[in-house]
Amino acid sequence: MVGGIVTTKIDLYCWSDQCPHNSLARNLLYKLMCKGKYDISFYDVSKEYDIAKRMNMYSPTLVVFDNKIRWNGPISLSTIQSIAEGNIPENKPYKVDLGKHIIKGNVEMLTEKNIFDTCICCAPSQKTSCCYSKAEWIKQIRKEFNLPYLGVLHYYNNKCVGGAEFVPSLAVPYPIIKGKDIAFLTCSYLSGEEHDFRSYPLKKLEEKLSSLNYKSLVAIVSEYVVFPNGTLNWFKEKGYIDLGEVYYEERDFARMHLIKKDLY
Length: 264
Prior knowledge:
The protein is α+β, with helices and mostly antiparallel strands. It folds into two domains: 8-84, Glutaredoxin (3-Layer(aba) Sandwich); 101-262, Aminopeptidase, CATH 3.40.630. It is built from seven helices and 13 strands. It has helices at 20-32, 49-54, 77-84, 119-122, 132-145, 199-211, 232-236, and strands spanning 8-14, 38-44, 61-65, 69-72, 101-102, 106-109, 151-156, 159-168, 182-189, 195-196, 216-222, 241-249, 254-262. The strands form three sheets. It has a seven-stranded mixed beta sheet. Strands 2-1-3-4 form a four-stranded mixed beta sheet, covered by helices on one side. The N and C termini lie far apart (57 Å). The model has no long low-confidence stretch (mean pLDDT 92).
């Protein structure tokens, strides 16, 4: 309650601009701060590993309402207003029967220059506007760790259809295993029922990481849903080993595991 007005407490936890939706969420909440109905706080966990651990944070965008309702990923004004009014949107498991038909198109290494091509995959309604902040973030990470790129983008029919993105594990705020020779898979996309656009760029990334002196690649995946980066069995089929469950995100039906693959 602020000044006698009942408010909704909203805490936004972001891993800097690792995801384009982080800047969208920040901008939306900034606009709501002057409304008086919301008590809003912002947390960038990039260097605040203790906060990420305390919040069991394993995805780059987490919104928490009144210290109890967790919302991962993109969020809209209508959703915020609905939750503030006590109407919690029903959520269903994000399950996809992943396609077996592997598409092999052309690949490009991901940098701040071509990140805008991914908007059609991640946030098509925003065009390229939400990728400017991520482009700057990529530039900073590349400079800090002296890396030529942060992933592999997959193109088919002159359009970006998927990709596999990574950062050094030492740059990851989540409570995972870390080391100079361990890379972390931030994103693997797209997940479709007819075609598999993910396998090819992931394979290419694994090959490239060895040349960057990484000995293993780790990721957070879920057992049955594709948030984040699921499913567990899909990765097991590609040689990843299960290091165990790390957290159950109840609203997303996501029983998350840490996985690892040694690179040769």
